[in-house]
Write a structure and sequence with these properties.
alpha+beta, single chain, 18 strands, 3 domains, about 450 residues, five-stranded antiparallel beta sheet, globular, Phosphatase 2c, domain 1
Length: about 450
Amino acid sequence: MTSAEHVTSQLRVCLWAIGPGAESVPVGQQVGDRYEVIAPQIWRDLTPNTPPQTPESLPEAVLPYLKAHRLRLHLPGVYDVLPQRGMAPWVLLENAPVNARSGQLYPALSGAWMAAPPVRQVYWLWQLWQLWAPLMDLGVAASLLNLDNLRVEGWRVRVLQLIPDAQPPTLKALAQGWQTLAEVANAAIATPLKNVCQAILAGEMPPEQLTVDLNYLLLKESASCRHRFHLAGATHPGPQHSRNEDACYPEGEKPEIPTPRIAIVCDGVGGHEAGEVASHTAVRSLQLQLEGLLAESSHEEQAIPPSLITQQIEAAIRVVNDLVNTQNDTQERSERQRMGTTLVMALLMPQRLQTPQGWLQVDELYIAHVGDSRAYWITPDYCHQLTVDDDIAGREAYTGRSFYTALRDRPDAGALTQALGTRSSSHLTPHVQRFMLDEAGVLLLCSDG
């Protein structure tokens, strides 16, 4: 559980319980001295301030959850494992699609489908398609075939639990579920969705073409969303530090930017000398590169694929990394003397889309980060953390060694596993995601302070 999730959930930590007989435990019953059943398969932790203990031997069933740690925006994680005599253990899942206030599951995608606008319907399918390959690799793609297992919280798709594949599911199996949704989809997208499903079922659409067609439909429907953007930035050293190692772009409440499309936050790595130099260097370099990317894209006559934009953003981040890394090498800095910085950035990418009705302009949101600087999407109804920290606790989770929540009191749990500038780009893994905005809200970029 992230520190933000922990703070907001200290009063009420609701978990999804799976395993033999978990659905039969009566509401109101207390399990052990720690959990209370508040609804079928929904348990409340009575001592949330004490992290659960990781068992010496992890059950095979929990490994996919651990290895999928970086997909926390959509997937739950393991909170605790409770042994049962003669049976498989109960597994308690945190970050499950359970409303902590009501103690109830968020709506099923199938139940929310008909009332959703067409852009959100397509966006939900796009998110499922983006999960298909990683869940196939983990042997749990069947999780996406059961519509009751798919929950939604606003635009965000959330998987209730991971379902092991009896055998690798086919793309046709996914299309069969989508066909059910296409039959009752909004009239604006029903026909193209049906055509996509029919082509898949007929074996006439490879995965690459599905990506192209679904992306086109998503961009086309997103063009109906009109946005006004306001940008502001500020940094402060905090009450305990005299030196401010944060840097941001833009800075100020009313930055003089005609069309705000770039936001960057960098935090000089604590414990390293000249962190403020690294953060300011990174912000300036990245700003110039992203402005160049926006200028180049303005001359494009068709939409740039998200995979290509992702590659360009990754390349820009690697340039920044090598710039700071070279300064370290030139100044002969070693170990903790090497300066570095975390990064989180947002790029509002304009796209031009040709349709039978003419040219449309669409805005895509790209979020990239390295380290533990974060991005949040905030509305009156929810606060979504969009990024996953590069820290020791996370690494222990996705390498299958321990539960993320069980490590939160470990002294080095929050230590960074990567930052910009401390090593060469061959050791760097930038994280880039694309989002489509179909609602009003606040995008918050912040350092870990």
